[in-house]
Design brief:
Layout lengths: L1 E4 L2 E4 L8 H7 L18 E4 L2 E4 L12 E3 L1 H4 L7 H8 L9 H8 L10 H4 L11 H8 L22 H5 L13 H5 L4 E7 L5 E7 L1 H5 L3 E5 L30 E2 L5 E7 L2 H10 L1 E6 L6 H4 L13 H4 L8 E9 L2 H7 L2 E9 L11 E6 L5 E5 L4 H11 L7 E4 L16 H11 L3 E4 L2 H6 L7 E9 L5 E13 L5 H8 L2 H4 L6 E9 L13 H19 L3 H8 L26 H13 L24 E13 L8 E8 L3 E6 L8 H12 L7 E5 L7 E2 L6 H32 L12 E4 L2 E4 L2 E4 H4 L6 E6 L6 E13 L5 E11 L6 H20 L30 E5 L22 H13 L10 H9 L8
Length: 936
């Protein structure tokens, strides 16, 4: 049949049942993205004869004679559609994976539609921005600016990829360009996986005969093909931070959906059909799904065949992967004599990262015989090193390439697809691709760790803390990826932020036969901060002290030791004169004292707060919470970078950090441009490729700016010095007498070259004696502390339990603000993600470990109408440990939001919520039976 796509006629032959999305991508139209394949997220949106549709549910055979327009057909980077320009200038994106779908849909909005745009855009989801920036784009608000030479830092410079993102031309993982070099590596095969139907079982027999006989099947991989090396899917600078408890293909299956076998075939459909032909016999083993039950004597052991010494599992005979039990002073005695005490148990649910780009890897062997993996990861170098270890390869013979990643949030600090693709490539010698479905993301990709946290606090009559006991149990699922690090981090800054003479922590990370948990924004702090900050709020009520004032009396201040359980513990955390927590508390207090911001009318009445205009069905409340976080991960985080002068006065930077909406690429260009007296648009970026830099630990722990950024700034300064030295030599050769020393101070690097006195030495002259390349490194130590304070005012609808956030404000201690608009977006996005896990989102498992929320329509990622605008306020601080005084601020905004909203709900209805998410039914139940609130 014949269709027109982006102005180009095409002759196509759809397969039976094929949808428009896959047809378009099959023909090289990569501006159409896959987010869900269920019509839920809008990443695949296109125009069919001018009408927006979700191409993932639009039958391809109905397109005969139709005109299809994608984001690439609306405009180009050189000549964008007005909506695309508006999205670039707002900027209405972060990772950008949803953006092509948004601009396509938004291009059809009329002036009348804008008043109802929340409904018009309800089919488009964004996980990154919090939607404010998208609404700014729709309103034509310009938030970006051009930088002047040498003064890029402090300006809201737009992302280098902005125009490519909004026109659908930016490459993501599987947007492989159609070039002869790429075509030469093709003969692409696809991989599909048969998952376990049981939560705990041993494979006793597997018959692959029928699957292997299916035409188009090239290999069937089972536990017999496993390389025999244990590893962890979680990746850290030191691989010893995680337990060795995982195999590429294991004979013992420990959660529903775990790999039983993989089929490599000509197409995904053929591979899936072959999976259905596999005949597997299982020995069903007892399973355990509650972490308390898993620790009891006689419980089924998930990794009882492993040892503490060899596999780094704390107590395999108790299903405990990690534990911490420590005390400073006698907490029991301090609680016994305290003037006021609080005792409660809080619980948090599983949360999906819900990044719109799913996990995916394409692997091949290049002409030099190297294994190449093009993959969606936050940690390309760590993936390279572990792949080399598991498959006994020389790391120099493995290249890992990451293009722009469509969202991460910690979920891509894992090795979930790369290992299986490597096995398939080595087995077949062909190019192999493995792409998670959205259902896979919900059922087999790790989630945020669910936790139960008991907090006991004691204080004197003045509100000074005298005792703190935190008892935390977390469900790490069937494997311990991040199960050690998340546990220790969850009870670190959350506890250390308060001064208290008697502290005790009991924490255990426990194996169960549930799907694995993993790294998630905040890395465990959000769960424990929810409990501690809720307990602090309750303590303030017991004492009759304002909640903000109680915190002021108890938070650490510069010079205080940062104590968890050992006051003598060595740490590389430094105050260094950078402290903004006091300012953050003041800023939020002032914001909450003002009038309520205007709340747009969406699907209900506009609420104005208590008083004559408020409905009697609504109860109103105010809440606050704070959080602290180290500016870098502990135990080292390394970056080796380079900056090279190119002909014509351009620069090329080499850095290993991946871009997934964190904005590090933009800031990297700003730092280099500032050091070299130029503008960011003259800085080319070669990044997230193990061939681009010597090494980079990866983009996690908010390290992209404070580690890689600092290394790049050092490299740029070194290059500036080298350019200056050459320029002085050039001038000295011209006029030896006048160039002797006197002109040294009057040397400046400019866009046109290096000015020495009145003379300009151009870039061509600077490069006459050879290339100019400089290098910079940073090891991630010492570290500083960043602080966030969140305030919320809410309305609770008594008849239904609905919670509406009327005001959301967050003050952040981010040091020098390198890019104000980008930092604002990071805070808004973190707060919006936290609103989701506070009020809506939960990955639900039944009693046998089966995930029942396996699609966006059952797992509620907030839509535009669900997210309040968060007012973002910056403390005025400067951190000498960060680049030009900056601190990290990507994970931190998530952590204080849940307790702030929970405290506001408590203030409104007089009953304490103890469980997240606070869905309507749970809040309604609190109102119906306050005695059943839990928490005891």
């Amino acid at each position: 049949m014949r269709i027109e796509v982006d102005g180009t006629p095409m002759e196509v032959a759809p397969q039976p049942g094929q949808v428009l999305r896959t047809l378009l991508r099959q023909h090289g139209v990569t501006s159409v993205k896959k987010g869900c394949d269920a019509g839920d997220c809008g990443a695949c949106s296109v125009l069919v004869d001018g009408v927006p549709v979700h191409s993932c549910i639009t039958p391809a055979h109905r397109m005969d004679g139709r005109t299809v327009t994608t984001a690439a057909g609306l405009g180009t980077p050189e000549h964008p559609h007005p909506v695309q320009r508006a999205f670039a200038e707002a900027p209405g994106f972060q990772c950008g994976f949803c953006t092509a779908g948004f601009v396509v849909t938004a291009s059809t909005l009329t002036d009348d539609d804008h008043a109802d745009r929340h409904r018009k855009l309800k089919g488009n989801l964004c996980r990154c921005t919090g939607y404010r920036a998208i609404e700014d784009a729709l309103d034509g608000v310009v938030n970006t600016a051009c930088a002047t030479p040498g003064a890029a830092v402090g300006t809201s410079v737009g992302a280098p990829a902005a125009m490519r993102v909004v026109t659908g031309q930016e490459e993501y993982t599987l947007d492989v360009p159609d070039t002869p070099a790429v075509r030469a590596t093709e003969a692409l095969l696809h991989l599909a996986v048969l998952g376990s139907p049981h939560p705990h079982a041993r494979i006793t027999a597997i018959d692959t005969t029928a699957a292997e006989a299916l035409p188009g099947v090239h290999a069937v991989l089972t536990y017999r093909d496993d390389p025999g090396v244990l590893f962890s899917t979680g990746r850290h600078e030191s691989r010893l931070d995680d337990p060795d408890d995982t195999r590429v293909l294991d004979r013992v299956l420990r959660f529903r959906g775990q790999r039983v076998a993989a089929v490599v075939a000509d197409s995904v459909r053929t591979a899936e059909l072959a999976c259905a032909l596999l005949r597997v016999d299982y020995q069903i083993l007892p399973s355990v799904h509650d972490p308390d039950a898993a620790r009891r004597p006689g419980a089924p052991l998930l990794h009882g065949d492993k040892t503490s010494a060899e596999h780094r599992i704390a107590e395999p005979t108790r299903n405990v992967v990690a534990s911490l039990h420590g005390e400073t002073a006698d907490v029991g005695a301090a609680l016994a004599v305290a003037a006021a005490t609080v005792d409660g148990t809080w619980s948090t649910g599983r949360v999906s990262h819900a990044a719109l780009e799913t996990h995916a890897t394409r692997g091949w062997v290049d002409p030099d015989g190297r294994l190449v993996l093009r993959t969606a990861t936050q940690v390309p170098f760590l993936v390279r090193d572990e792949i080399a270890r598991v498959f006994a390869l020389d790391p120099a013979r493995v290249r890992v390439v990451t293009k722009r990643v469509g969202g991460g949030f910690g979920g891509k600090q894992e090795m979930l697809t790369e290992d299986l693709v490597t096995l398939a490539v080595l087995r077949t010698g062909r190019t192999v691709q493995y792409e998670f479905s959205r259902r896979d993301e919900f059922t087999i990709a790790p989630t945020r760790h669910p936790m139960r946290v008991r907090v006991r606090l004691g204080a004197d009559t003045d509100g000074r803390l005298t005792a703190m006991h935190v008892d935390q149990t977390m469900d790490t699922g069937a494997y311990g990826n991040h199960g050690i690090g998340v546990m220790f981090h969850s009870v670190s800054e959350s506890v250390a932020v308060y001064r208290c003479p008697a502290k005790r922590v009991d924490a255990e990370s426990v194996y169960t036969n549930n799907l694995p948990s993993g790294a998630f924004r905040g890395y465990g702090l959000g769960q424990v901060v929810f409990a501690i900050e809720s307990a602090m709020d309750e303590l303030a009520r017991e004492l009759g002290i304002d909640p903000l004032e109680l915190r002021r009396r108890n938070v650490v201040v510069p010079g205080d030791p940062l104590v968890v359980t050992d006051p003598h513990e060595e740490t590389d955390l430094r105050w260094e004169g950078s402290y903004g927590l006091d300012q953050c508390l003041d800023l939020v207090e002032q914001a909450l004292a003002g009038p309520l911001p205007e709340v747009p009318r969406t699907d209900g009445p506009v609420l104005t707060g208590p008083g004559p205009d408020g409905s009697p069905d609504w109860a109103f409340g105010t809440g606050v919470a704070l959080a602290a976080i180290a500016t870098m991960p502990p135990r080292g985080h390394h970056a080796h970078t380079s900056v090279e002068l190119l002909p014509g006065g351009r620069y090329r930077i080499g850095v290993g950090t991946a871009e997934f909406g964190n904005g590090t690429t933009t800031v990297h260009t700003q730092l280099v441009a500032t050091a070299l007296g130029t503008t960011p648009d003259r800085v080319e970026v070669h990044q997230s490729d193990t061939d681009a830099a010597r090494y980079d630990t990866g983009a996690f722990g908010s390290a992209g700016v404070v580690v890689a950024g600092r290394a790049l700034y050092a490299a740029a300064q070194a290059l500036r010095d080298d350019m200056t030295t050459r320029a002085l030599a050039v001038v000295a050769a011209r006029t030896p007498r006048t160039a002797s020393g006197v002109l040294g101070p009057a040397v400046a690097v400019e866009p046109g070259g290096v000015r020495v006195g009145d003379e300009l030495v151009g870039h061509a002259e600077l490069l006459v004696d050879g290339p100019l390349v400089a290098h910079g490194t940073h090891d991630g130590t010492p570290r500083s502390l960043a602080f966030t304070v969140h305030g919320a005012r809410v309305a609770v609808h008594r008849p239904t339990g609905e919670v509406r956030v009327l005001q959301s404000v967050q003050a952040v201690d981010a040091g020098t603000v390198l890019n104000p608009e980008q930092l604002r977006g990071q805070v808004e996005g973190g707060a919006a993600q936290a609103v989701g896990s506070t009020l809506y989102e939960e990955v639900v498992l039944d009693d046998t470990g089966r995930v029942t929320t396996d699609a966006f329509r059952s797992y509620r990622v907030p839509k535009m109408s669900d997210v309040p605008r968060t007012e973002v306020l910056f403390a005025d601080t400067h951190d000498p440990l960060g680049p030009l005084g900056a601190k990290s601020m990507s994970e931190a905004p998530y952590n204080p939001v849940a307790p702030a909203i929970a405290n506001a709900v408590r203030d409104a209805i007089g009953v304490r919520p103890y469980r997240l998410p606070m869905t309507r039914d749970r809040v309604w139940a609190l109102l119906a039976d306050p005695a059943d609130a839990g928490g005891a």
